[in-house]
Amino acid sequence: MGFLDQVPAGAGAVLTIDLAAIAGNWRRLRDHAQRSGRTVECAGVVKADGYGLGAVPVARALLKAGCRTFFVADLEEAAALRAALPTGPDARILVLHGPTPGTERDLAALGLIPVLNSLDDIDRWRFLAAELGRELPAVIHIDTGMNRLGLDDGDARRLAGDTARLSGIALTGWMSHLASADVAGDGLNAEQDARFRAHLARLPAAPVSLAASSGIFREASLLHNMVRPGAALYGVNPTPEAPNPMSPALRLLGRVLQIRDVPAGTTVGYGATYRTAAPARLATIAVGYADGYFRALGSSGHVTIAGVRAPVVGRISMDLLSVDASDVPPAALVPGVFAELIGPDRPLDDVAADAGTIGYEILTGLGRRFYRVYQGA
Ligand SMILES: *Cc1c(COP(=O)(O)O)cnc(C)c1O
């Protein structure tokens, strides 16, 4: 923990992001996607500021590892990434929300590739291409079961019957998105793939993408030409039914501010919801729900101090939480030491389960006042 010497004395919490682990996870996903010996491109999804870990440093690390295609949600995220990555074919930026009305010209000017989610998106994109007098690249999204974004069944058939509608569009690829890839053996995966393939058979050929993190670990038939992992890059387990094949990418440490020895029967925190059953040593840590440490973790989560488990007691406050650190050796428990809230001793997915949510939500909810350390750049 040598790097902790460089943490400002006033920092209440430290978020360490391991870019080497993220790059390693990307390589593992790419290799797994190519397990049948076919070339399958592995993109990187860095929307929501790289799932809370920093889209720019993450994308730069992925670029160095060989990733050439990056997905973000909207124009604003795309423009920020465009400014940070080299332009040209070595770093394609795809925009999942597509050319929302009014953003078309900015998308084209910045050389971004929108995902066209409707016939209306297609029309507005090709009209702009005609006006600019050059082809504009795009991916077209066909909905096969999410019923969220993408051409529905009828519109995909209409497009197949009128492919002149694609004139002026340089077709980068076709995509669809799986609803239940995280559930091993779910029949919906094959059903969606079959619907997708039926549409593709009627449409002009272009590279095809269906699988995100979990889909990479399901039937090899789902892999097509490109996979689009997000969560697994950041260490979320893409196979919830089995041990996590990914490496942890972050560590969240919170500083112990105060230690108090209390007798049995002492209540802790707002609402006095927790009462010690025996004499206890409590530690107060400088992280709260304002930092994305979910209030649902009150009296249900735990942290580790010097590798020893310390259960959260009482409600999580905005900037503070309390743990019962009675089992931590006294020499390891002094004001100023750090507790691990998420990390190798306290996996992200376990924290999420204790909070009644998924790793995705914990990641994207991580607060802004942590002292951030990027390692392995
Ligand atoms: C967010 C998203 C992904 C990445 O999903 P993960 O489960 O995080 O791998 C891929 N494709 C689309 C369309 C998405 O919205």
TrEMBL record:
Q: Which GO terms describe its biological process?
A: D-alanine biosynthetic process
Q: In which pathway does it act?
A: Amino-acid biosynthesis; D-alanine biosynthesis; D-alanine from L-alanine: step 1/1
Per UniProt, the keywords (alphabetical) are: Isomerase, Pyridoxal phosphate
Q: Which SMART domains match?
A: Ala_racemase_C
EC number, as in UniProt: 5.1.1.1
Which transformation does this protein catalyse, written as a reaction? L-alanine = D-alanine
For the modification N6-(pyridoxal phosphate)lysine, the affected residues are: 47
- Active-site annotation: 47, 270
Task: Give a Pfam family name.
Answer: Ala_racemase_C
Which top-level group of life is the source organism from?
A: Bacteria
Q: Where does substrate bind?
A: 148, 318
Q: Which GO terms describe its molecular function?
A: alanine racemase activity; pyridoxal phosphate binding
Q: Which Gene3D superfamilies match?
A: Alanine racemase (3.20.20.10), Lyase, Ornithine Decarboxylase, Chain A, domain 1 (2.40.37.10)
Which segments constitute the Alanine racemase C-terminal domain? 249-375
PROSITE patterns attached to this UniProt entry: ALANINE_RACEMASE
Q: Which family does it belong to?
A: Belongs to the alanine racemase family.
Q: What does this protein do?
A: Catalyzes the interconversion of L-alanine and D-alanine. May also act on other amino acids.
Q: What is this protein called?
A: Alanine racemase
